Amino acid sequence: MHPLLNIGVRAARRAGDLIIRHINQLDAIKVDTKGRNDFVSEVDRMAEDDIIQTVRRSYPDHAFLAEESGASGDAEFVWIIDPLDGTTNFLHGFPVFAVSIAVMQRGRLEHGVIYDPMRQELFTCSRGTGATVDGRKMRVSDTRVLASSLIGTGFPYKEDPESLDPYMAMLRDVICQTAGARRPGAAALDLAYVAAGRLDGFWEIGLNIWDIAAGALMIQECGGIVTDLGGRDGWQQSGNIVAGNPRIHEALLKLIEPHLTPGLRR
Ligand code: IPD
Ligand code: CA
Ligand code: CA
Asked: Mean pLDDT across the stretch 161-183?
């Protein structure tokens, strides 16, 4: 395992353990509201601090882009961190959440770790060497047609009426044309499941780079495709993402296309 990935795994496992230690005292956790339907708890912040400290012990000069503390440092290597993806689930005791950590070198994603502390499942990848779940090689699914596919998604829940109507139209088509749609509530884990072939495809509007960096690289390393809603490369900037095995990705793009507004095309 690459030394950077090794530190990422250590940091993700430690953060996962910290999160789990709080699951039986949810009522005592302090929660702030960042925006409508957007919450942060002291557990998110503690997990993020712990991850950053773990990385700094080995790489004191590296930079960070972390959900709760923002960007710090200016370096060749940037650690992109979502300390607790699925905070709303966690706060309700709904057991679907994860830690997501990616390493970018000179603007290119190189390593990714997604850790599900409830199932103790560890997903990892490094550019050019593939991806694993608990040490076993992963591949995207070979489902060929939408009618047999299981598709993951996330609802646009922020104050963004412009994307809600087009999204509902997309969801309607997905529900009618696939074997099923799922909204588990942790985008990083959804992407890891696409990489592992448990979901055939995924789309969501308005994610942040820390939700998707590790999972997107994982899908690419497993033979899948990741684009924005228009089929182009801009997903890192827009946070609008379509992913899947190559056939389902293409079919999802076709399904989404008629519902795109000019803003969503970019
Ligand atoms: C959220 C989850 C959710 C997605 C949201 C994200 P958070 O992350 O990934 O599945 O639909 O858009 O913001 O806030 O729990 O880290
Ligand atoms: Ca997140
Ligand atoms: Ca988060």
From this structure: 95
